[in-house]
Amino acid sequence: MELRCKSPKSLQSLHQFMILEFPGSTLEEQHMTRVEYHLPKKAFSLSKAFCALEREKDRLGIKDYSISQNTLEKIFLSLANGNNGALTDN
Fold first, then answer.
1. What share of the chain is helix, strand, coil (3-state, %, to 5)?
2. pLDDT tens by residue, 11-62
3. Where are the domains of the chain?
4. Which one of 24, 34, 46, 62 is least enclosed by Cβ atoms within 10 Å?
5. CA 15, CA 63: separation in Å to the nearest integer?
């Protein structure tokens, strides 16, 4: 899941939301107001994720977001960085 916030001030409340709403999610990358989370495949449904984000996007200052499956490139980079199977186990 990739999200972009309207301001850096929104990131703390976004992180809290992700921990509470999607237990087991991990912050993979953060750059300025853009963050990327890995969500365990079995821990949520797409409909739950979209509903939760739509419900809270104004309060959390989310500018836009996307949800996608891992690409082969991401899996390869994860393995190359020593995260053996971290992206594929779930």
1. 45, 20, 30
2. 999 999 999 999 888 998 899 999 999 888 776 788 888 999 999 999 999 9
3. 2-80
4. 46
5. 15
Residue given tokens 């739509």 in the structure block: 54
| pTM exceeding 0.90 | no
| Kind plus residue range of the DSSP H or E element containing 51 | helix 46-60
> Positive or negative CA dihedral for 7, 63, 65, 45?
positive
Return all residues near 78 (Cβ < 8 A) that are at least 6 apart.
86, 87
Say how far residue 73 (Cα) sits from the centre of its chain: 17
Which own/partner contact pairs does 41-44 have at CB distance under 8 Å and 24+ positions apart?
41/90, 42/90, 43/90
